[in-house]
Amino acid sequence: MIGIGAGDPEQLTLQAVKAMRHTDVFFLLDKGEAKADLTRLRRDMLETHLADRTYRVVEERDPERDRSAGGAAYSPAVGDWRSARADIYERMIAEELGEDETGAFLVWGDPALYDSTLGILEEVRERGTVPFAYDVVPGVSSVSALVARHRTGLNRVARPVQITTGRRLAEEGFPEGVDDVVVMLDAHQRFRAFADEDVDIYWGAYIGTPDEILVSGPVSEAAPRIERLRAEARERKGWIMDTYLLRRAPGER
Fold first, then answer.
1. Going by CATH, does the domain composed of 142-248 fall within 3.30.950.10?
2. pLDDT (tens digit, 9 = 90+) per residue, 203-239?
3. Domain 2-127 has CATH 2.30.180.10
4. From CA 235, how far away is CA 232, in angstroms rounded?
5. Is the distance from CB of 97 to CB of 25 less than 8 angstroms?
6. DSSP state string for 64-100
């Protein structure tokens, strides 16, 4: 598993490039025409860094996930989707990878942060039908790229920071004793709930790509602009990946 960063081809680490140059087969999942940019970027990285090497690309269609499932049905729906992906990974490794060959998954961002590839490969390995060993090459996450682009830090002196999802933010709000919260996977812009509080937001979409959008400021002022830009971008591209940091004034509860 090779972390390839948040979108900027220059964010590939030297370790990632070295691993790519020792790979015989690259496994890609096609997410459909709307997200063709994600596949195209991976192929561009291969062409840039492996111009003098021979390799194969094996591409399969990513299974659809039931995104309407909520509440108690959410976790089972994600589990079903991950198992469907595991079936695909298992088949690709068994049928497309020679005994002495190395295969690789190019993982967006960092494989250890809100990405399913690591868990899915573990599921495949636990099935025991396809024996293999694997390594994980870390990448620049969207979280790291976000705060770098906004020229700020994740946390403040002697203070904790928490990384969570939009769904959990809506359910729990700011964790007890935490004033800096990074939110990922938020399709419903849950930051709007803090418009009446002393909370700043550092938001970014398509971070590290030519389509990058950055907005920062008090949630009360930034939220309408983010909503407008987000809707326009999603309409234009058909998809959006965004991340944001919420920063509350110390002592606000």
1. yes
2. 999 998 899 999 999 999 999 999 999 999 999 998 8
3. no
4. 5
5. yes
6. P--TT--GGGHHHHHHHHHHHHHHHHHHHHHHH--TT
